[in-house]
Amino acid sequence: xxxxxxxxxxxxxxxxxxxxxxxxxxxxxxxxxxxxxxxxxxxxxxxxxxxxxxxxxxxxxxxxxxxxxxxxxxxxxxxxxxxxxxxxxxxxxxxxxxxxxxxxxxxxxxxxxxxxxxxxxxxxxxxxxxxxxxxxxxxxxxxxxxxxxxxxxxxxxxxxxxxxxxxxxxxxxxxxxxxxxxxxxxxxxxxxxxxxxxxxxxxxxxxxxxxxxxxxxxxxxxxxxxxxxxxxxxxxxxxxxxxxxxxxxxxxxxxxxxxxxxxxxxxxxxxxxxxxxxxxxxxxxxx
Amino acid sequence: xxxxxxxxxxxxxxxxxxxxxxxxxxxxxxxxxxxxxxxxxxxxxxxxxxxxxxxxxxxxxxxxxxxxxxxxxxxxxxxxxxxxxxxxxxxxxxxxxxxxxxxxxxxxxxxxxxxxxxxxxxxxxxxxxxxxxxxxxxxxxxxxxxxxxxxxxxxxxxxxxxxxxxxxxxxxxxxxxxxxxxxxxxxxxxxxxxxxxxxxxxxxxxxxxxxxxxxxxxxxxxxxxxxxxxxxxxxxxxxxxxxxxxxxxxxxxxxxxxxx
Lengths: 287, 260
Prior knowledge:
Helices cover about 75% and strands about 0% of the residues of chain A. Chain A has about 290 residues and is an all-alpha fold.
């Protein structure tokens, strides 16, 4: 039996180790000054110490966390509200939800392009305000995209994230046993109470999954920040890219050190979040 | 119409962007502060007169994305069965670890992998791109197939084996037809992930693997917004067309089987 399981898992475990684990190992090794393109060096932690002295890095980390949190939380909230709204429609009409697939299909690069088209200072919204006479020059339109606020990136992530959350949450909701709700209502629960004690607890697992996936994706993603081009302070991924491609080889370990920290953060975050969600779930049930 | 607000929100979020893209594609000279563009077909004409790079990029992306779907399918079909039907110590941990490549930032392992690929000659090649794309996308296939196996249960397999069918026959005639929806679902996600990835193709492919995202990127960051919008629309149309073909194919297949 045991041997069967290992044999069955082998087609996946082999490439997993050869590509994923090996890639990670090399990132870690290079962050410690080993196996560099210039030749094998000696193991050192000086690049990690350099990270703690880097002022700009803290700003990048803050921006990455900020963008990741608000885009993921906004997507889950928007996706849940849309899923609930679609759920109340008659099943035939519910099919209009299919247009949200457009957001899933458009690549991140294209979504960022859309944000540029709409919200840059010479974009469509600015044009509309000009035609309405509310502004007289492009400079009067608030500079949303290049101030380092991350707002443009959050909007782009939302356009991708809302349909994703809608898909995960809708899958649970549209297969929901309506009799549970009818029973709650018959027993005298109001609409709010029914939502809070019957519907929401069943949606929570899907909402947690959506949040964790979207948060970590935005945290480490490259495409959208690269198109929207904020570099002071850039997202962590942009910082790594700059060090990796635009500075000399001797700085490469620094990029790898940032990546290692990002990996540890993502893995620990996923683990702790799951624990936390399970704990909250158990706690709710006790009540 | 008490559902009108929902429809409006949906239209605003997802149809308006497409409309903007269509208008922008038809009007390369659309500039601030005009609100309504002068439509023309310059973009289409440009692509029609010089279709070479565009078509190379499109076929390149289609090629490596479909190859990624096939590779992830062959990587996960047996493991999904093992995960669905057997329990062993550390299974939850293993499942968690196997999900990691889709969760952690792709940069973290791909930058290290890039170095290895340079050493073994896989950098700047299509196989290298397919391998790294499979790594970030197989968890979706694994999830879909594991669910598919779990929903199917073992009874059919055991029954067919009892009646003397070989392992291959059981797989082809009993399991495969029932797993098709799960494969289609997982395959769609894997295709989308691979087709729309920009960074990894750029890093591992190094410019010598033609990709649609790589073709689109300079267009949208330059001032050629009209062409950028046009290419984005093709980007939207190709997966939609593929999904429609897939749906129709599945529908026909099931109808045929039922008639047999």
